[in-house]
Amino acid sequence: MITIITNKILGKDSTSSKRADGRASDELRPFKIEAGVLERADGSAYLELGGNKVMVAVYGPRELHIRRLMQPDRAVLRCRYNMAPFSVDDRKRPGPDRRSVEISKITSEALMPAVFLEKFPRSTIDVFIEVLEAEGGTRCAGITAASVALADAGVPMRDLVVACAAGKSEGEVVLDLSEAEDKDGEADVPVAIMPRTGEVTLLQSDGNLTPEEFEKTLNLAIEGCMKLSEAQKEAIIKRYGD
Amino acid sequence: MIFIEDKQMVIPGDVLADKEYQSGRGTFKEDDKICSSLVGLVAIRDKKISVIPLQSKYIPKRGDVVIGEITDIRFSMWNLNINSPYSGILPASDVFGKEKRDLNKAFNVGDVLFLRVVDVDEVKKVKLGLKGRGLGKFRDGILIYITPTKVPRLIGKKGSMINMIKDETKCEVVVGQNGVVWVKGDPSMERVAEKVINMIEEQAHTSGLTDRVRNMLFELLGKEIPEKEEKPEETQEATDEEEENGEDLIQ
């Protein structure tokens, strides 16, 4: 027998949600963050958000040998976002593509305002984000995990950057879009913030939104960021026990 | 107003106190608030708040004694890896004086040296020197890498921790301020020392470490654990004002 999943079966308030996975419009997918998962990296983190599995390694500050990249007054923050070939349903051709080059760039720009780069002139901090499984919202998952890994590496920072997406799917403004909602939805707005001050370090918007909807989406994304931020803090504290 | 206690663990972005306190190492000021910039333990001294990091990289400072490994030989200097974001240079003149000789004959790539940081300039060029008591080349032995901020913990109050390891394992142990530890002795004893040092690194932020290290040493050496002493010496963080003196550590 085919059971049609309704909100009643999931025990959710049937009026609050039309979403495929039964979430409320302001509900995140289940998540988990762990710090210090890699032995040989200076800092590392592992994050699961719904069907996303992301692993981040941080190396540095370390010596930079490429002279043309070197900055005389600060460190450079290099990010590499990479999706494993097996991370999506259809095998992804390995190696960097237009999308991952863009995400690498915006990740480093989202993290840079938080890091005290000026403390380590002429050096580099390398962040490697590996997406092991993808299900929508990997750039945000990558940024959230990367700042945990940076903190784990002992890199001095102003705050832990946290990222979360919101958007519009089936006419409704929703938090943390899943892959299906992203593909068939009307808009996707990934946002990264520094939660203490509320500064926005990343804001992208893909799709169509009215100004009112945009404002609502942005506020919803920031709300999601705040929830994830708590988990980030817990993950770092848990790394060192008690 | 202060929002945290002494020795509490904090993470980057945590607000520690407001403007009546001074901002020390590992903290920064923002809008009259003092915030932590690191994952570490808070240390409050008078009105000064600092954060002692649990993980860090060595930033060279003039006067430090460090252990470095030669990575390259250039025309008139050696390049050394000093376990830091910045590599060090040892000028040939420091070893030979005025006289010109073949650099290969003195030190080769892979040699491990005990050096003093002579100068660090504004672009972080690190000049090293070999002038001083006990400085020079190490023969044999093993290297252990720890986080530089945990060096004071490894040494302990007036060298209590390090001397215990030396006495029990009969090894020579030299600690560089860059977090490199050189151990030489009987190969099996070197292994014991390595295990103990790694344990100290892992548990550096906990208290009562000296007792646990002693127990671990005795266990690894198969000795009887003596009756618990009257006073648990140094149960608090030794990370406090431990000024380690490199020269004292050379045998």
List keywords for this structure.
heterodimer; A: 242 residues; alpha+beta; Ribosomal Protein S5, domain 2; 5-stranded antiparallel β-sheet; 10 strands; B: 251 residues; OB fold (Dihydrolipoamide Acetyltransferase, E2P); Ribosomal Protein S8, Chain: A, domain 1; 3 domains; 5-stranded mixed β-barrel; 6 helices; 16 strands; disordered C terminus
Spans of at least 5 consecutive residues with low confidence of chain A: none
Which CATH first-tier class of the largest domain in chain B would you pick? Alpha Beta
Strand order across the largest sheet of chain B: 8-9-10-12-11
Total beta-strand segments of chain B:
16
Can you describe this structure?
The complex is a heterodimer of chains A (242) and B (251). Chain A is 26% helix and 29% strand. Chain A has helices spanning 98-111, 138-152, 179-184, 211-239; strands at residues 31-35, 43-49, 52-63, 76-83, 123-133, 162-169, 172-175, 187-194, 199-203, 206-207. Chain A has a five-stranded mixed beta sheet with strand order 1-2-3-5-4. Chain B has 251 residues and is α+β, with helices and mostly antiparallel strands. Chain B has three domains: 9-53, RNA polymerase II/Efflux pump adaptor protein, barrel-sandwich hybrid domain (OB fold (Dihydrolipoamide Acetyltransferase, E2P)), CATH 2.40.50; 65-138, Beta Barrel (OB fold (Dihydrolipoamide Acetyltransferase, E2P)); 142-249, K Homology domain, type 1 (Ribosomal Protein S8, Chain: A, domain 1, 2-Layer Sandwich). Chain B is 21% helix and 30% strand. Chain B has six helices and 16 strands. Chain B has helices spanning 92-96, 103-106, 151-155, 160-169, 187-202, 209-221; strands spanning 9-10, 15-18, 22-23, 27-30, 33-36, 40-45, 48-53, 65-73, 77-81, 88-91, 112-120, 126-129, 136-138, 142-145, 172-175, 180-184. The longest helix of chain B has 16 residues, at 187-202. Chains A and B meet through strand 3 and helix 4 of A and loops of B.
